[in-house]
């Protein structure tokens, strides 16, 4: 029986990153396809955002702060996309619960999928998780970024 995991869709070659490309460069993720069932998810698309889309960053905090109402997700033109990020995170959680999945492989740096480090509004890498990762961790789902795959 293979293990099921959810994974950031861009890591599996789906062109859903903000710039309309994929992040299909990690050989460890690709090797996992041979031994585990990987379910691709893009929280930003699931939240209703188009691809491509303007770059987004969490303002005044991290994903945990967004979920708590103390931070927002803003695109480079100043439009608030917090609602879409929260909705996308909830959709990923629903998929995980529906399929009984206990682990998520996330794309590092992303305001939705970032695990351990995300970019702030100035483009600096800071400690913290994206919105989806923060929600999944809160719900007891193990999250690793693509660099932590064994």
Topology record:
Layout: E1 3-8, H1 27-32, E2 36-41, H2 43-46, E3 56-59, H3 63-67, E4 72-75, H4 82-99, E5 103-106, E6 117-119, E7 125-127, H5 131-138, E8 142-145
Parallel strand pairs: 1-2, 1-5, 5-8
Antiparallel strand pairs: 3-4, 6-7
Key structural traits:
single chain, 150 residues, alpha/beta, four-stranded parallel β-sheet, two-stranded antiparallel sheet, 23% strand, globular
Q: What does this molecule look like?
A:
- With 150 residues, this protein is an alpha/beta fold.
- The chain has one domain.
- Helix content is 27%, strand content 23%.
- The protein has five helices and eight strands, in the order E-H-E-H-E-H-E-H-E-E-E-H-E.
- It has helices at 27-32, 43-46, 63-67, 82-99, 131-138, and strands at 3-8, 36-41, 56-59, 72-75, 103-106, 117-119, 125-127, 142-145.
- The mean pLDDT is 93.
């Amino acid at each position: 029986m293979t293990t099921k995991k959810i994974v950031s869709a861009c890591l599996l070659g789906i062109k859903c990153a903000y710039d309309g490309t994929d992040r299909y460069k990690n050989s460890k993720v690709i090797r996992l396809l041979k031994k585990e069932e990987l379910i691709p998810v893009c929280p930003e698309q699931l939240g209703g955002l188009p691809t491509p889309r303007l770059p987004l960053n969490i303002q005044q905090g991290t994903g945990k702060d967004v979920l708590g109402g103390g931070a927002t997700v803003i695109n480079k033109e100043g439009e608030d996309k917090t609602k879409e990020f929260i909705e996308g995170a909830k959709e990923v959680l629903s998929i995980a619960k529906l399929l009984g999945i206990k682990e998520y492989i996330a794309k590092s740096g992303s305001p939705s999928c970032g695990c351990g480090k995300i970019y702030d509004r100035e483009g600096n890498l800071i400690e913290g998780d994206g919105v989806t990762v923060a929600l999944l961790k809160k719900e007891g789902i193990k999250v690793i970024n693509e660099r932590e795959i064994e």
